[in-house]
Write a structure and sequence with these properties.
The chain has 169 residues and is α+β, with helices and mostly antiparallel strands. The protein has 5 helices and 9 strands. The chain is globular and about 45 Å long.
């Protein structure tokens, strides 16, 4: 299995992968594949931060990291929204989601980003260093219940200061 930057020719396969992966997810609104298209249309889209996991010529996982403005955040906070993250049903429980998060975070840190934010299951994402964003000092403007708004610092010492308004849409 390799993790690599997504290529434009991967886009149709990514759409199908995201659609089928979220069709079997515990939580889904059914629009995640269209959210990927919307994020690519935004002027903040960074193709170098869209990654796929590939095995035997098949895409089996995907993550998209998009720059996220955080109004009112401490100076120097450069955050990314990690959404959506998915792994093909038959390849789940192999740690691929964690590998995609790790590699995405590594590449983001190399580019000067220092925080990842997402909406997700605190039990699952807690394994990868994500913590409740509200308890860290961020304000929730995302319209999701506070327990599901999560943050992870990409700095070794964590968040030195946290704050600002998070709106993950």
């Amino acid at each position: 299995m390799t993790i690599r930057k997504a290529a434009q020719e991967d886009h149709p396969s990514i759409y199908h992968l995201v659609w089928t992966a979220f069709a079997t997810a515990r939580v889904s609104d059914g629009t995640e594949q269209d959210f990927v298209l919307e994020l690519r249309r935004r002027d903040t889209y960074r193709p170098d931060l869209e990654l796929v996991a590939e095995e035997n010529g098949q895409l089996i996982g995907h993550i998209l990291l998009t720059p996220l403005p955080v109004p009112g955040a401490p100076e120097g906070l450069r955050g990314l929204m990690a959404a959506p993250l998915c792994v093909r049903l038959e390849d789940r429980n192999r740690g691929l989601g964690g590998q995609l998060l790790h590699e995405g975070g590594r590449r983001a840190a190399e580019l000067g980003y220092n925080a990842l934010f997402l909406v997700g299951d605190p039990e699952y994402y807690g394994r990868y260093g994500f913590r409740n964003a509200v308890s860290l000092g961020f304000q929730n403007a995302s319209g999701v219940p506070d327990p599901f708004l999560l943050a992870r610092s990409l700095n070794p010492d964590g968040f030195q200061e946290a704050g600002g308004m998070l709106n993950l849409h």
